[in-house]
Amino acid sequence: MTFSARPRPADSHRDESQLDDGTGVVTESAAQHRSVPMTVITPHRGWFDWRLKQLWRYRDLIMQFVWRDFVSVYKQTVLGPTWHVLRPLLATFVFTIVFRRIASLSTDNAPAFLFYLTGYIMWSYFAVCLDNISKTFISNSTLLGKVYFPRLVIPVSLVISNLVAFGIQLVLLAALLTPYMVSGSIRLTVWVIGFPLLLVILAGYALACGLLICAITTRYRDLAYLITFGLQLLMYLTPVIYPLSSVPQQYRGLLQANPLTPLLEAFRRGVLGVGTVSLGHIAASAIGMVALLIVGLMMFSRAEQTFVDTV
User: What's the burial of 270, exposed, middle or buried (CB within 10 Å: 0-12/13-18/19+)?
Assistant: First the structure.
């Protein structure tokens, strides 16, 4: 059972003789002890008892987890954080060879390498966050069974720590875009202004889906083995390696039902000037994210009460 702390005044009916130092006189230290507030540990109650205010109180712990997650990933590696640059470059190179050169998939007349890189950067942030968050209870079971802190601290820290890699990859994208922008072959559009909103929605979906899966896998471990396959399948249902405009009209509705589709299309629209998206699609995606996040928080809040007994 997970507990949270709330202060309660000290017992005013305590016998002062119990604070006696043996001489019949209440000492100063004893008097100070009498005025110190007590802490009562109470369990979470209700589906909506998320206690989000505690995240601000534990902000220092969140930053410590962010640092831990960033350092531990590439600890004892030769290249270290350089992998944040090499991984998207290698993946984009493979996409370019396979899907552009061999399969001849359309890129909406955008440079193929930049087209695939923009899709990979957005998708990898979502996929890595979801995968890490879904393993919160399993990966941290030893720590969570010994000390109390709001369990939501870990998923939030994962969302933030993965922003570091995302930021490095954005710098890489900007560096590769610069020659095209100087030559005038690519121009940023007004959609780029909404990039922070797109990132918030994307992070919200990663957090919501991760919390849902995390809550379910505490009882059903089989789901953990399906995450990798599910992410691969979802990637092909999201315009990561192809534009929405190239999908036949009879199948386009299926992809538009995917709330991640307008996020990737809007990002490409702002950076490369290509993409099929509207403000209505973005609004629908944002509303869906809020609804899914509420459900995820409800499930996570209930699961954290008994995860010690099931993990």
Answer: buried
In percent, the amount of the chain with pLDDT more than 70 equals 78
SS3 content of the chain, % helix, strand, coil (to 5): 70, 5, 30
pTM value is: 0.80
CA 146, 150, 154 angle in degrees (round to 5)? 85
Q: What is the pLDDT of residues 129-185, one digit of tens each?
A: 998 888 887 777 777 777 777 888 889 999 999 998 899 999 999 999 999 999 888
- Tokens 């995917």 correspond to 258
Question: For residue 257, what are the contacts with CB-CB under 8 A and spacing of at least 6?
Answer: none
Question: Apex CA 209: angle with CA 116 and CA 267, to 5°?
Answer: 30
Radius of gyration of the chain (CA): 25
- Which of 176, 201, 189 lies closest to 261 in space, CA to CA? 201
**Is the Cα dihedral 264, 265, 269, 274 positive or negative?**
positive
Nearest residue to 231 via CA among 220, 219, 221, 240: 240
Sketch the domain layout of the chain as residue ranges.
52-304
Q: Does residue 164 contact residue 70 with C-beta atoms inside 8 Å? A: yes
Per-residue pLDDT tens digits for 8-60: 444 444 444 344 444 444 444 444 555 556 555 555 556 666 677 778 888 88
Confidence of residue 209 (pLDDT cuts 50, 70, 90): very high
Distance CA 91, CA 86 (A): 8
CA neighbours closer than 13 Å in the CB half-sphere of residue 173: 24
Q: Give residue 83's identity as a one-letter amino acid code.
A: W
Q: Where are the extended beta strands (E) located within the chain?
A: 3-8, 38-43
